[in-house]
Design a protein that fits this description.
about 450 residues, alpha/beta, Immunoglobulin-like, Leucine-rich repeat, LRR (right-handed beta-alpha superhelix), seven-stranded parallel sheet, five-stranded mixed sheet, flat
């Protein structure tokens, strides 16, 4: 065995420049890591090896050591090394370094290798083995129970034969009755076997999902290490299991992520979470029902186009949530009846066409500049009788008739406030004088004043 020492301080690896490993060597190559205090908080760590052919091997670091996979040493081409530390709530990566590999003088028939087991191979196999053992034990138990039932049935049939040897008809009737009585039991056993088969299939699917995590981590590594052909640094994380993560900050992701799929179940605030993420284009967030504040959440995300959120039922402040997200086209979210501050929520969203949500202003205290610059907005709906303060959609020249009617239906009676809409959109949606008279009559009857700009 050949050993090499490496130091990991903060997010850098030192000592790799002194290493030169022989390709195709029969000797086991071990790397020993010396981590600084920044890494001691992590329950688990792994080394990530990337070959010249752009293949990845992720190996768990045990007792601060890891064995280099022979697959990265089969040719005399350098490989890249990085380190990741992780626990239930956070992760830390160390930037990649290049490790030199030189030609080996050993003859081909002296080189023996077996496939390297990666971290995800072991996790996946452990899950399948555990599910199979549970499946096997329960099947054996059911078989024993089934055999006992068969023996019991046999005894009853023999007893019936002995008692009715001269009455064939009576014997057949009793056998048929016993079979009918136990039909539901047999059917239940068969159903249980089918359920166990289904559980085994689910266990296999769960194990296969590690492939998605593996792919996501590979994409992340590629984002930090440009491809050999000089490709883009952009990467996607459409599936990322974060349901146990409680704390999120604007540094949780870099500027190269283009697509995200996250679970924010444990989070209570998302202020500035994706602020100024220049590469972010699409995001889907689940578990948003516990968020209480999303101030500046997507502030100045110039490439963002599509956002899908869950419920905002506990949220009270969405101030400038999408401020100056100039490429945003569609937003979708659920319940929002407790929001008090809507100030500048969609201000500067010049490409926004659709808000797939029913805006509820029941608790609203500030809607200033909420739709400022939204000249492309076509579709939006409002909770009936929920608006009780001045509201301005004067720049929304593309607003549909249905959306404008929903706005007017949302005005609360006897509020003595002003609603401002685009004269261009108003005239297009209500082209005749009779239509406009009816609309204005309804608005005035509620105690509101209509302003056209």
């Amino acid at each position: 065995m050949v050993s090499y020492d490496l130091r990991v301080e903060k997010q850098q690896i030192f000592g790799a420049e002194k290493i030169a490993i022989a390709a195709d060597s029969n000797k086991t190559v071990e790397l020993r890591f010396y981590f600084d205090v920044n890494w001691r908080i992590f329950d688990a760590k792994a080394a990530i090896f990337r070959t010249a052919e752009n293949k990845y091997y992720i190996i768990e670091i045990r007792s601060s050591s890891v064995t280099v996979p022979w697959e990265v040493l089969t040719v005399d081409r350098d490989f890249e090394l990085s380190v990741i530390g992780y626990d239930e709530s956070t992760a830390l990566t160390a930037g990649k370094v290049t490790v030199k590999v030189v030609s080996s003088l050993l003859p081909e028939d002296c080189k023996t290798f077996s496939p390297t087991e990666t971290l995800f191979d072991r996790i996946r196999q452990d899950g399948v083995d555990e599910a199979y053992k549970k499946y096997r034990d329960e099947i054996e138990s059911l078989k024993r129970s089934y055999d006992e039932k068969i023996l019991s049935l046999g005894s009853q049939i023999n007893e019936a034969n002995e008692n009715t040897k001269n009455v064939e008809r009576a014997k057949n009737e009793e056998i048929a009755e016993i079979q009918r009585e136990n039909e539901s039991t047999v059917s239940g056993l068969n159903s249980r076997i089918s359920e166990l088969n289904g559980e085994l299939d689910e266990a296999k699917i769960k194990a296969e999902k590690w492939d998605l995590v593996d792919a996501a981590m590979s994409d992340k590594i590629r984002s930090n290490n440009p491809l050999w052909n000089g490709g883009s640094k952009e990467y996607r994380l459409p599936f990322f299991n974060t349901k146990n993560t409680k704390v999120w900050t604007s540094t949780s992701f870099d500027n190269y992520v283009s697509e995200l799929g996250l679970d924010l179940t444990q989070a209570t605030t998302a202020d500035q979470l994706f602020m100024s993420k220049e590469g972010l284009k699409k995001i889907k967030l689940a578990g948003t029902g516990n968020l209480t504040s999303t101030v500046f959440m997507f502030y100045e995300c110039p490439s963002l186009r599509d956002v899908e959120l869950g419920s905002l039922e506990k949220c009270t402040n969405v101030k400038q949530m999408f401020f100056s997200a100039s490429s945003l086209e569609k937003v979708k979210f659920g319940a929002n009846g407790k929001i008090r501050d809507f100030n500048g929520m969609f201000s500067g969203c010049v490409a926004l066409r659709e808000i797939d949500a029913t805006l509820d202003f029941s608790a609203a205290e500030d809607v200033t500049d909420m739709f400022l610059g939204c000249g492309s907005l076509e579709k939006v709906s409002f909770e009936p009788d929920s608006i009780a303060l001045d509201i301005d959609l004067g720049v929304c020249k593309s607003l549909s008739r249905e959306s404008m009617q929903s706005l007017f239906n949302g005005l609360r009676n006897r509020s003595s406030c002003n609603v401002t809409v685009s004269k261009y959109a108003y005239d297009n949606n209500f082209p005749t004088a009779d239509e406009r008279d009816n609309v204005e009559s309804d608005i005035n009857e509620k105690g509101w004043e209509l302003t056209l700009v």
